[in-house]
Amino acid sequence: MSAIDRVTAPFERFTQTHASRMASAVIVAVLAFLWLPIGVLVFMSFADGGVLSFPPDQLTLRWYRVFLSNDAALDAIVTTLTISIPATGITVALATMIAYAVDRYVFPGRSWLQLLATLPIIVPLVVTGIAMVLFFNGTLGLPDYVSVVIAHVIRTIPFATLVILPTFMSFDRGLEEASKDLGADEFETFRQVTLPNVFPGVVAGGLLAFTLSFNEFVYTYFVKGSGDPTLPVYIWNQIRYNVTPEVNVISVVFLAVAVSMVLAAVSLTRVDLIARR
Amino acid sequence: MTESSRSDGENAAESESGGTVDATDREMAAPDDGVATTDREVATDGGTASGIDARVSDLTAFLRDRPRLRTLSIAGPPYGILVFFFAIPLLAMLVVSFQADQIGGAWTLRNYTDFLTSETYLTVVWRTFLLSVQVTAIVAAVGYALAYSIVRFSRRTTLLLLLVILPFWTSYIIRMYAWINILQSDGVLDSILNLVGLPALSLLYTETAVLIGFTYVWLPLAVLPFYASLTNLDADLIEASKDLGAGPIRTFLSVTLPMTINGVITGVVLVFIPTFGSFITPRLLGGTNNVMIGMVIENQFKSAFNWPFGAAIGMVISVVVVALLVLATRLGGGLFGTGGETS
What we know:
The complex is a heterodimer. Chain A is about 80% helix and about 0% strand. Chain A is mostly helical.
């Protein structure tokens, strides 16, 4: 036994004996770190005094009522939806095309297409955000609404593609061959064989694209000029200039959207496909 | 495919787009293709084809004999949109960064020389870099410990993974706002410390607050590549290491960590890059003493309205990021692999 081994041996023995307990401790501690702030937000949305006092004197639904009668906040939700819903539709169509093309065909520029579909995750948001405002608003002179929808599409394509592509790859291509042998053409095969098989993955990709678009802030903040704010932009202004306890209620709205969408997506596809990489 | 038969095909498609389904026309499109002919007969025999269906099946028949056109029709639109609305804007930013004061101004290098010779800005870049390194190190250590604990010691992996990634899908700003609630003076943390008789910390607007905020938002993102690489690790290797007499720590350092290093690099890149460019977290949690370079860019666009200067800073950030990406791919991070590789 070397000198180093003599020193490390007790630690090795300790780790050996307590490995399982150490792992549980890590899991509990990190999950608490991840979920306690969210719990605090939900709890504080019922606090009478709002943001500044903890623990609250009493619990109330008052801020929910304030929120429901606040036209600015409700308008922000509508604005967000008028952007997120079309952006999600476009993203799902494009991501499905990317998945189909990359999985089924070998063509020059195939790896470039994959790179292009992944890069928006990697380039810092602020860089793409300013590039878009310069090009869309500065060079092309696109209307705000069109610019924002395109920006959301670019933002959500990588995530939708990462969810949809593996569904195509894991789908048994023999079924498509069989369909074609039985006389169906490519489109019929796609509609009657391929699409039903990859549909769960496509819907999961769409749900995640919608969630991401509903939450999108940085691109929206740069590209959208002085028009109606989306909900994240509205919250940003609130937090920076005049925080009211109502912000806690809006947080609950964000949470509800995220949790329901992600749970629906997970029920349709493998959990590790969601937000991987 | 010869020129003449291609033009036949086009004629066929044109005549049929009027809505008539004519089997003879279609046979003319590719008369020497026996299998294709059978396809069409079956399609016609199906008898259910409405006007739209007929037109679509004509289109697919037309495209089948033109593999290039078919690939183009599927890969073309997403390719075009990504190039035109993502790649070209980044190039446009490069162009604008060489213009004086405003878009369309005179050509100049001044944006770059001003930025790179200003001690204030370089200090901000250096601080941003150090902070990003700290955030990345914390997230990598905590995230890896978590992924390792889940993969090696837990049976409910799906549920735990779900609990880890769910917060990632909630609005970034809301997650920062949660920490404002907790860290501000007389906030949740101070109130709890008060209750147990400890002094208040008032962490909001300190560097610690920024570190906590970044760790919180990036942890779920980093756990996924760590998790993927640990799941792919062959458990027999760990057994072999133990059989050869290595303890758990030694096994971890000589087998597990080296075998999962690609996942680690991927996670590190995914955390470092967005931290380096971030402005939300430092603005909301860091106050005025913890300025990061993303905040300077935001300021140029939203307050100072000096877009070319902001674009130049954006280019400098991009150069740093690209250099890091090249380094990471050299070290073996699998960022641009085909989608199936990491599963």
